[in-house]
User: Fold these one by one.
Assistant:
Number 1:
Amino acid sequence: MSSLSEDPGALLTAPNVESGAAHLKLRAKRLLLGVSGLAAIVLAWWVGVALVSRHSALAAQFGPVAAWRTLPALVTEDQLFVHVGASLRRIGVGLVWAILLGVPPGFLIGRFKRLEIALSPALQFLRMISPLAWMPIAVMSLGVGDPPVYFLLTFAAVWPIVISTAAGVQQIDTRWVQLGESLAATRAEMLWHIYVPGIAAHVLTGVRLAIGILWIVLVPAEMLGVNSGLGFLILDCRDRLAYPELMAVVLVIGALGFLLDSMARLVYQRFGSVRESE
């Protein structure tokens, strides 16, 4: 008789081991495909710069090799981590303000149909205005420095949070609401035990979308008279004609944006998927 039949526990663990191995194999395959895609992009970048540099020596400074070589100097001489910290701080402040200003109206819009009908045209109108269009007004109203940057980032990030929150409220199962009302739950209990779990996944989706928008708006917003941040560093490299450093900063911006989105995705998988399953 086989060892599996002698050990009943093995019958239970064997399928789990097989599924775990299959999951690891799938993750390794996806990782390999992702790395291959990035390598293809870098290769196309290198080939393109090599072809253009035959006619212009300046083009060679925009290649991946030059950017990689200048990265250590960017860290030591240009204080890259200081600029990264300033940019991440502004992203954090803008995101917090967007959540504070976006979740309550989104909840009310999703909860009351008449309010949604009344406000939807205005919200869609404001949402379609590029945040960068407010740059002159922000500078004239708030001056130079961090305040106009915070305003632009908050304005850019608030709309996906409002829309996602409203959608989450509208998709809550009415039977849960009726159950809470039949049990004479207070407004605070209804909010905490029914609405918050019901909209958590949608709010996290809105936050992830907002992070992507924030990262795109951040670089031009940091060109509004601040003396730190990745946007400022882009301008500084341009003014010094340090094109390899400029391309290195572009790579850093892409890498940090990728990491931020990955972190937001992990948070959603950890909390949002659990809320949806409940």
Number 2:
Amino acid sequence: MKNQQNHSTELNGKTALVTGGTKGIGKAIADRLAEAGAQVIVTARNHPGDANLDHYFIAADLTQPEDVTKMAEEIDEKFGTVDILIDNIGGLTTPGGGYSTLTDEHWENELQLNLLAAIRLDRTLLPKMVDQQSGVIIHISSVAGKQPLWNLNMAYAVSKAALNSYSKTLATELASKGVRVLTVSPGATKTPPMVKVIEDFATASGLSFEEGQTQLMNQVGGIPMGRMAEPEEVASLVHFLVSPAAAYLTGTNYAIDGGSLPVVV
């Protein structure tokens, strides 16, 4: 789905860093912020190999402290500061099946990827935001942090719930220092990783892809809007939250799930 809105210039003069910004939701966010006038930096473990990559790229594995340090040094040298930080790195890497299938290594890897990478990067880049009394941090979480599925995403859901709690406490600490911190929790979104989750679930359950998708969506109560989100729709929400129009918003977790969460949040 292409963005049909006119390009704006409200982020002119701002530098944005989007982790995991070469594909899926991260790429959609990077593209949207650039359309709004921001200078965008993206990171991933490996260059996507696309000669037409539109944003400044830094190769970094953010689960490794030394890579975070090197990335921060490069940003400092070439850009000076980051005004907008989108902590988008993350993913479901552990097997389903419940507690008995998860080893210490599974838990540690999931926490590194979905929680500690964001904490590490925030800690590195926040001092300059605090010094300039301005900045926005968006943590990309998941509705799984509020509605975990024991047989599918136990460790992932726990790591995202921890990210939600961290984001809220950080927002409270920084509110008086001019830095806003928010969380965006997508539901089922049409990205390659989501397709793989459905494929793996369907295979493990002896189902076709279509049957697996239906059963998986039914486990979370279905999607009232009847479809998965497009990455660009998540990017639209993030764009709003980092814009001047959202200047009074901080500490809130925004679910973008087509109405699938069956609770009042």
Number 3:
Amino acid sequence: MQQKVIGLIGGMSWESSAEYYRIINETVRARLGGLRSARCLLWSFDFGEIEALQQAGRWDEATAALIEAARRLERGGAEFVVICTNTMHRMADAVQAAIGLPLLHIADPTAERIRAAGIRRVGLLGTAFTMEQDFYKGRLAARYGLDVLVPEADDRAAVHRVIYEELVRGRVEPASREAYRAIIARLVERGAEAIILGCTEIMLLVRPEDSPVPLFDTTALHAEAAVDRALAGH
């Protein structure tokens, strides 16, 4: 049985998309051995165009762009779709409704792993859109019964700024790692038993040693779940 073809919607940012590609291929090689690698297609956006739509609140146009990307992957032979970003799961339901392929939602493998660890109260770091809107927190609460804490307003602004001014530009600053460590500590003080790295670039900055509680890296968990789907039946 051949691997299923993974359709990756990336470029938001390319730094995290490169991590998806690396993790997916390393995981396939580890599981299948030898020279094996993943069968995948990648549609990569110009993130400057997407970021402008995000900041202007032009979500309908962003949704249309993601739907078109998913349809391109479907026409190209993808057998399921992965959106390589947390924030753009804001339109995941609309994308799923517009295509004939399954969409592997980033929140699901993350929540499943958290529940398997016996954790119920989690802190969430991500863009302001992910932390403040309900499309992500609501799914974690409604489908998985998780109690989701987000940082206070000043801390949310700091987390968002580092993502857009540094991480998506390829900058990893020690001062920002210290700032994130302090923000994580404050979430733990409020009762967080674990922290979700709910932006696919945060894993470039934050490491397990930066947190007194377990970290759940959505990039790695999503990529590994994509391999599970691609290799199902092997």
Number 4:
Amino acid sequence: MFTSQGPSLRELAVQALSSVERGYDLLAPKFDHTPFRTPAPVLEAVERALCATGPFDHGLDLCCGTGAGMDVLRAVCRESVTGVDISAGMLAVGRERAPGEPRLAGPRVGWVRGDARALPFGPVFDLVVSFGAFGHFLPRELPGLFAQVHSVLRPGGRFAFPLPAPAPPSSPWYWALLGFDAAMRVRNAVWRPPFVMYYRAFRLGDVRRELVRAGFDVDLYPLSEFGRRPDGSPRCRMLVATRRADAPASG
């Protein structure tokens, strides 16, 4: 499951018994060698889809980690690209992976330590993206999270992220993810600090409802590169939530 440069089982165990912030600080140096990093085909598919709807001026990668989504933003944003994450360790690896250079071409790049539930920005972004981070938020936190995203977007700005279809009960992945979530609930019931990471808690119906309540119009775009399920539905979509021009800033 992991490369020789990835974390050992012992290192993963230490991470899992830490808080989310501390756990990712510990994992950061080896994170890009784990399956937790968003796969390149997903990043590339989202980049192609956004290129068809852009360009954008100012972009934000929410919960940017080591910066996988920053590469997507660099391709579709003209003026500036900002990554925000709660883990100083992940940000440090991201900066090292893409060191600052004099701006000869492409957008300005910045890295900011901050909590997605209390973003340190005004309404200055045209595009917010996020990859693989939503499992770190409990369902009850979604209204506040989406209100924060709404508050940093300009009217007409977009919030985009990939949303894979859930595995059917006939798939081994369904039971693997169900088992993982159950193990995390037991861990958080008996151990402090909690480590919030649930793979099955981010459901399309709930997400769409809370985005609309936060002041967004919601559209779904199939990512055709991943094909369709037997029932004809896409295996993966890009969700695009557009801040309504007449909606007041949230916060």
